[in-house]
Structure formats: structure tokens, C-alpha cells
Amino acid sequence: MQMDRSKSRKWSNDLLHRAIEFHGHGGPYIVIGLRMGLLALERLNCRGWFDIRCRAALTLEPPCSCVIDGIQCSTGCTMGKRNIEVEAGDEIEAEFTNGSKKMKVALRQEVFRSIQDGLAESSDEYVRQLTNQIVSADDAELFEIA
Question: CA quadruple 96, 98, 49, 145: dihedral positive or negative?
């Protein structure tokens, strides 16, 4: 049974809270996944759930793999529907498609290094501040988009 409504394409604290409930905790990488998915919904003009596909390539272990849950929550792509595929990669990137339209979103290397350095800091407050910076950053600051 398909949904009649569209996924929201806008950031909201409700989206973040639902993603945290699904994933089990918050942090920079789930926010990166949420932001990637929202960007794809907007740019590809998708309703979500069924008219979007994702192929993500990234390190297949936490914390980087947390991006996958963010993408699932924001786009509605799920492993169960088989409209998300995940493969090992050296960077964090995802290709989204809607019919013949496609786009690639890659996390900028300097952002990746900043997140990794921040996580190594291991202070909960520092990680919270870093996560908030990612929430409020412009797409162009975070991603290379093609």
C-alpha cells in the first residue's frame, strides 16, 4: 500500500527526533545522511518512499555507516523495499535516482576530517556542537553535488 502524501523536503527537529528514535542515538553522521536525503528529494523532485532510489558508498562500520539510517529516514528508501543499496567505499557519497534523473552527493573531505577530529575529541558537548554546525550549514559547505 503506497502513501498518498510526500516526504517533507525541509529540515525539522521532528525529522531529527524520528531518526534518533530509529537509529538509537544522534550524531553528526546521521545528520549528514538526513541532509543528503533531503537534498535529493528536493533536487530530483521526489515524493519519497517509492519514486527514489539510492546507492550509497561508504565505510561499512560505525560511525560512518550511521549515514545510511539518516538517508533511510529522510527519503523513505529502505532495505526492505530494496530501493537503497550500500557498498563499501573510501568516501561518503550517495547517488540518488528518480526515473532517468540522477544526482550524486559526496561529503566534502574537509568536512569528513573535521567530523573525525571532533569525534576523536570525544567530549559529548563538542560532538553536540559539531552536530549543530552540520544541521545549520549550507549544502555547498557540506557536499560536492553533481
Answer: positive
Name, in order, each residue with C-beta under 8 angstroms of 104's C-beta and a sequence gap of 6 or more. Answer: 93, 94, 95, 96, 145, 146
**Torsion of Cα atoms, 127 then 74 then 25 then 81, to 10°:** -140
Instruction: Name the domain count of the chain.
Output: 1
For residues 59 and 4, give the distance between their C-alpha atoms in angstroms, rounded to a whole number.
Answer: 35
Query: Does some domain include residue 8?
Result: no
Identify whether 1 is part of a domain: no
Is the residue at 134 inside a domain? yes
- Residue range 30-44, pLDDT digits in tens: 999 999 999 999 999
- The tens digit of pLDDT for each residue in 109-140 reads 999 999 999 899 778 888 899 999 999 999 99
